[in-house]
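In this supplementary section we document a worked example of the pipeline. Step one takes a protein sequence of length 411 as its only input; no multiple sequence alignment statistics are reported here. Step two produces a three-dimensional model, which step three serialises into structure tokens for compact storage. The input and output of this example are shown verbatim.
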Amino acid sequence: MVAISPLLVILIPSVIGAIAMAFLNSRQNTPIKTKYTWARSPVSLAVVGAVAGALGASFFAVPLQFCTFDPEFNHFNADLTFGIGIGLIIIGTVIAINVTNWLLQRFIFGMPIVEDTQQGAFNSKLIPAMLLAPTMAVLLLFIYYPVSETFRLSTLLSRLGTDKTRFECLNNFTRMFDSPDYHQVVIISILMTLSIVIIGLGLSLLIATMAYQPIPGARVYRILLVWPYALSPVIAGAIFQLLLNPSAGIVNHVLETTLGFTVPWLQDPNIAPITVIITAIWNVMGYNILFYIAGLQNVPKDLQEAASIDGANPLQVFWRITFPLVSPITFFLIVTNTTYAFFNTFGLIDFLTRGGPLNSTTTMMYSVYEVGIVNKDLGKGAAQSLILFVFVIAITIIQFRTSRNRVTYGA
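The serialised model returned by step three reads:
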């Protein structure tokens, strides 16, 4: 890999930003109308775009000291590090250009020449800024600052319990991407998440539909269905640890006395992931049932009755009427259950299997704990936590993009 000058790293995105900003604003069908005279000049817009491109490229490159383009820093898979560096530059540049264009459209081109004095509008920008200040302070202190510190830590060789650190560029990431063990962890996490979401939501909707039927004692029955969600994942893990204990568990005792065999629920690497999935589904099922029952109460009865009069059987009524009308609830639960499967299963995994046997239940979240806390490698642990963070955000964005047209709001 050939070293690239930091000046060139900033210059190319600047040129791209200038061209992009000029192109974006040249597509307007009407002349630019704004009280700011500088904003009417294509040269000024190109300068703004160039600055935006430079800032976007610097957002990742400066904290990394341009190390992704310097072979001296990349001791492990320099080509992969170079590719990641290019990707970060592109992401930063695209975000900066789009944000800058949005700000121009919102505050420069969209600002009327005559000040808005209608009743209910703020005549000064100071009051909205003061109202937003507490929220922004909380976000900066508890979200953005920890994320930036995690990113800084992920570029270091740092051990828990010692103050000595060494800058490692993105070697923590490249080692992780090249590790077959981490590939297995990602696959296990995806399979567990799919199982928890699909099986859990299917069973929850089925049980909620049955529990919604007009039967005696329905309210008490529904409360009993919801209560498992009141338990934390750690308590759920403790309960199933007692139930599935190989020597004193009641489940194996019943199986042995009735069927003559026992199941190694927590000792077999092929069965332990299934045990974790069952425990997670049981823990989150009450939450799903609660929302599905609330959604079923909003399904218009007249639509179901009209479908029945037209000759539809109960199964057809469910798939054609009920299920589409609870799709907003389903979409919401898909997102929340995905987050639960990636993050909240840590407690029950730690209590049930501790990631074993043979790492068969080590998820991405549990791997962060093992690497960062147990093995005391804070740099690699921080890198894995960032990958998990980006991974879940990407999945959530994909869910919103792909499910938008499949969700039915209202009758």
